[in-house]
């Protein structure tokens, strides 16, 4: 058995005439934190959607735990142990934090186990414990992101994919969320695949980085080797752009 938990090999995705991913390959090893960085419209969400069974893949192969999952239905993929936290969080605003977590545990048949898992999630996110009886719609953006990740944890997924967790959040909150994710990784051996538009805060948290632009993987490397940001900037913008500070914000 290989150490790779997820691989997408030579994936092409088309929405009608529009090619969103072109012959793109990525892999994620067990226990890794891998980040896909790229500008708006690069194809990042499409990559996660392809792994979750929700994108029109026209060619290529997707494997999870050495099993082919290309063309497999999203609910079946979820049951195999992949959970996607979509961009924009999508919590149920009128339901309480507790109810949001309980519903996410529907995948488990055993209600005792679901109860234990609510407790397990609250241990990682003490902030959610304080807000347990609040409607999720009244939470701050950071708290909603925590809840969205908490919901993914309820499924006991082996691989959690998070689409732009930093979007609209203050740097302090972003770091806090990453610290919690790394804590969960350490405690549970979880594997994480994360999309981000900006690289600066991610480089210190991720093990490995892919830069995606125009549906094509432009760069792959260990975060430690890319720390100065130069190669990332070049791949991100497609040309030498010494003054391109956008990715550094
Ligand atoms: N359902 C769809 N139908 C048609 N085109 C789509 C669809 N979803 C995405 N696209 C297009 O595919 C391209 C890649 O989109 P995608 O959302 O994967 O990029 P992204 O890197 O995640 O960008 P963002 O940061 O804006 O979410 C974009 O040009 C987008 O407009």
TrEMBL record:
Q: Does the keyword ATP-binding apply?
A: yes
Which family is it part of? Answer: Belongs to the ABC transporter superfamily.
Q: Which InterPro entries match?
A: AAA+_ATPase, ABC_transporter-like_ATP-bd, ABC_transporter-like_CS, BCAA_Transport_ATP-bd_LivF, P-loop_NTPase
- Report domain ABC transporter positions: 6-239
> Transport: present as a keyword of the record?
yes
- What is this protein called in UniProt? Branched-chain amino acid transport system ATP-binding protein
Annotated keywords: Amino-acid transport, ATP-binding, Nucleotide-binding, Transport
Gene Ontology molecular-function annotations? ATP binding; ATP hydrolysis activity; branched-chain amino acid transmembrane transporter activity
Pfam families given in the database record = ABC_tran (PF00005)
- Where does the source fall among the domains of life? Bacteria
Some GO term, biological process aspect, for this entry: which one? L-amino acid transport
């Amino acid at each position: 058995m290989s150490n790779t938990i997820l691989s997408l090999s030579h994936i092409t995705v088309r929405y009608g005439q529009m090619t969103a991913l072109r012959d793109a390959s990525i892999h994620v090893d067990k226990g890794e934190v891998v980040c896909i960085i790229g500008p708006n419209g690069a194809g990042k969400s499409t990559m996660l959607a392809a792994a979750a069974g929700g994108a029109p893949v026209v060619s290529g192969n997707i494997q999870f735990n050495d099993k082919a999952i290309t063309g497999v239905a999203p609910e079946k993929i979820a049951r195999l142990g992949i959970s996607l936290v979509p961009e924009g969080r999508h919590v149920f605003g009128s339901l309480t934090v507790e109810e949001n977590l309980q519903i996410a545990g529907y995948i488990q048949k055993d209600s005792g186990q679901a109860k234990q898992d609510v407790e397990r999630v609250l241990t990682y996110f003490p902030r959610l414990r304080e807000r347990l009886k609040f409607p999720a719609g009244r939470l701050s953006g950071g708290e909603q992101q925590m809840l969205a990740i908490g919901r993914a944890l309820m499924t006991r997924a082996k691989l959690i994919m998070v689409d732009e967790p930093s979007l609209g959040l203050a740097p302090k909150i972003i770091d806090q969320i990453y610290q919690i994710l790394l804590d969960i990784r350490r405690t549970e051996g979880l594997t994480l695949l994360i999309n981000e538009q900006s690289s600066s805060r991610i480089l210190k948290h991720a093990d490995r980085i892919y830069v995606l632009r125009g549906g094509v993987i432009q760069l792959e490397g260990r975060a430690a080797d890319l720390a100065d940001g130069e190669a990332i900037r070049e791949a991100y913008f497609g040309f030498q752009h010494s003054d391109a500070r956008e990715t550094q914000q």
